[in-house]
Amino acid sequence: MAEASTRETYGKTLVELGRQNEDIVVLDADLSPSTMTSFFAREFPDRFFDCGLEEQNMVSIAAGLAASGKIVFVSSFAIFASCRCFDQLRLCLSQPELNVKIVATHGGITVGEDGASHHAIEDLALYCALPGFTIVVPADAIEAAGAVRVAASDHGPFYIRLSRPKTAIVYPKGYHFTLGKAVTMRQGTDATVIAVGIMVAKALEAADILARQGIDCRVINMHTLKPLDDAAVVKAASETGAIVVAEEHLAQGGLGSRVAQTTARENPVPMEFVNLGDRYALSGKAEELLRRYGLTARDIEESVKSVVKRK
Amino acid sequence: MAKKLRRHVITMTATAGSGHPGGSLSAADIITALYFKVLRHNPKNPQWSDRDRFILSKGHAAPILYAALAETGYFPVAELATLRKLDSRLQGHADRKFTPGVEMSAGSLGMGLSFAIGVALAARLDSKTYRTYVLLSDGECEEGQTWEAALSAAHFKLDNLTAIVDCNGMQLSGWTRDIMNLEPFTRKWQAFGWHTIDIDGHNFDQILFACQEAEKKKGKPTVIVAHTIKGKGVSFMENNAAFHGKAPTWEEAERALKELE
After folding, report:
1. For residue A79, what is the domain's CATH number?
2. pLDDT for the residue A173
3. pTM of the full structure
4. Of A163, B131, B162, B251, which is most buried with the most CB atoms under 10 A?
């Protein structure tokens, strides 16, 4: 599978957007070479503000800029752009619904060797708890570009979570991103895997393996966690009768919790969850960590088999 | 006028049965000077793009801000009686979503200076000449974010930004010097790269003069360290931490209003 970097795509997309709209400003917290906002900084030095290692300050500054009519992109690593500044996100962005886009790179455990302090595995739960935030986890670089463009044109606070390593390309070039509309990546009738981010590619891989074993598995990319595409969940539940949710996140508060809430209310079906459970991960290579903590195509395959048995 | 605003604070908090009179009264003269003399603003058009911005970082002092906004015409004075009531535009802490003239939602301390930096940076980007004023409490300078902001305002050389600290020396449970000592306070701001002016925060002329001096200072932001008395104007509230977050009873309110006649 071809791969591309979501954060490099983000950096390039920001430059394009910056050329189109003078109101776009970008803030970073001493991580621009990694978040790739450095591209924007180079082309638009007057509209780029490095806030240093002051994430709380950065989020509140972003609010002040947004209240003055700017479209503000704020970048850092996902761990610092969530846990470090949560009260600021709540009071300065969520409550007043200001037009700030938090685009965080280095989400999940695929950050790898830097270890538990740098693994953002609770960020989705935190952001899902903030009313008014739109939350997107793109599956690949093509979708990342689409999500960033939509964030720039839609009003209100956004959280977009990107990855450190390159991500498998799951879409053809002409793919058009539609906010809040889940994408059925593959049809199927026996069960549905609903996945986000890097787990979408793994779900597709698992569906191929399952097909060879006679299990016809649907794969849905639920790129927008909030607002959730309830209709796609309900349809999957009623048409396939079993759901597996796969995400690079803790068990609580992320996509699994949101999908389960919808199925519990609308159409309860057997569900399984592929995630990190309730624990922190160690330092290691990204692929090693995904294997160790149960986030591989093989893990999805096993979960689908057990959920199908419960139908 | 300051006395009138103080009377509103007493009546509003007594009517609401809760609220923060102490820190509202200490800021009354500063707020009066700003809204009636310093700020270029248009109460009939709160979104006027060239208005000077006033940001209340100490969001619990909302009653004094609401009193000034009502008296300058942002909304009817009668509406002050709805403070903290369900469906009122006057939330317990200042909230930009609901109240005309309120620039920032506040209430969790330490965020206002940062917000003001964003507003001041936007002025620079848009070549606007408006000034940004932000009112902090000394107690909230215990929040680390205030000092992140202090560093960055100086770093960005924001001479279009004036911070005013309502230095009443007290916080919820007592004297700041006992709870978390901030001294030497003015020297800290100097060390962070700010132009500093110490004043008596209840002296109208000193407040106005300091605001003018701040406007003339180029290349760095200015902080006005305004020495004030918590509960100023009501004898039994002065220097009394009990009235930080407690409304007066009706009996107390009557005594207070008599003192403020």
Report:
1. 3.40.50.970
2. 86
3. 0.97
4. B162
